[in-house]
């Protein structure tokens, strides 16, 4: 007869214990998501730009997809180009996702993961009488480009090596903080040609219609773009590199690049980065 009270007590104790475990599980906060602070100059469609105040573009889509694979959260931080590398090195950003070209000079400061290949296009006004097709056609013209970029170095190189050294008039170069500012200068007749990324110039034509046109047909400086990571941050590098591999394996990465008129770099393109 003493067994029944014991069983009832044991059952009550077990139920009480389960309720306490359930209560603890409910009150215990869920594990916080890893937040990745991503620096980007969001003035560069179709790569990264703000649409109705929301980050948009191919770089935004790729980074968000990588973060989703890992269960991480992206904190997009819009800044101007000149602040990107200093901000990464100063730990303001964890990642730079801003259609940044991979150069030897940049690789000395940060690590980079290659993910797309592009070239230069020349944009002129729709009513322009000039139609520069290649570097040699820029001699004597006023050319606008973005300050602090590979473009700025390239136009100076063209001016000296293609023009001045061959007895032709050099380029008059005007630099601006953002690509849209260069386009506005073009429309305002402050420059004759905009020298910029091919995909960006295609985006400008789609946006502005017959106000502008692309005239270039020759190859300029085919170049590979990459994601910037602080040197020594192997965890973030691995997260991004593995994420891109997974997107490629699913075919999603190639479709995304193609939808923006971009392509992947080849193995040879990547091998040539350090030569």
UniProtKB/TrEMBL annotation:
<keyword id="KW-0732">Signal</keyword>
<dbReference type="InterPro" id="IPR001638">
    <property type="entry name" value="Solute-binding_3/MltF_N"/>
</dbReference>
<dbReference type="Pfam" id="PF00497">
    <property type="entry name" value="SBP_bac_3"/>
</dbReference>
<feature type="domain" description="Solute-binding protein family 3/N-terminal">
    <location>
        <begin position="35"/>
        <end position="264"/>
    </location>
</feature>
<protein>
    <submittedName>
        <fullName>ABC transporter substrate-binding protein</fullName>
    </submittedName>
</protein>
